[in-house]
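HUMAN: I'm a chemist; might I ask for a sequence paired with its structure tokens?

ASSISTANT:
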Amino acid sequence: MTGSTSPRYGSRREQLELGAFLLLIVPPIVLASMAGVSRHAFAITTVATILHDVALTALILFFVWAAGEPFAAIGWTSRRLGREIALGVVLYLPMLAVLVILGGLLRAVGLEPPHPPPAGLVPHSLAERALASLLVVVVAVAEETMFRGYLLLRLGAVTRSTTAAVVLSTLAFAAAHTYSGSGGVVSVAVLAVVFALVYLWRKSLVAPIVLHFLQDFLGLIIAPWLALH
């Protein structure tokens, strides 16, 4: 009689890999299957977006971990956390002023202004605004991890040029926001350059995440709320 062996449930790496993959594919499937439930369209779209961005972030962290690199290589560091948060808040006002001036210039040359958020992403109730607040936190962390932390690291290694890495990551970020119209794409590209420069300066994603969060929070939550009142 041969000895029995315990079942193998996969290594930690395999479990993390599978978990990230499932997070990527399950939310779109659920969203597609429930797309007709208009009563809950905001919640379904928001939760699916949150899960998708969490999965992409997890996948990037898995890539970095599998390569044996520290998470600080993509800006994930708690060094000077309070100072970096404060810096992001302080930098937001001059960044906002730049965006206002840019908006005037875009209108002067005939480019359409940035489109408002899609109707399905505008929160109306207190519960929806709370869920939207969670969304902008997740989006800020995920997109900065993707477009600044990871892409600048890998594009810099491939092109051997920090400038090329910033340009290419900016183009990718702007392309992901074509729904905001031509003026919106230009504004998003300017934001991407600002976020990249702050990240390269600070070697931390904290300040860019704060800037990104404040911009989305005002645009997706505060502005629609003021419009309703």
In short: The two ends are 78 Å apart (CA to CA). The mean pLDDT is 85. The chain has seven helices and no strands.
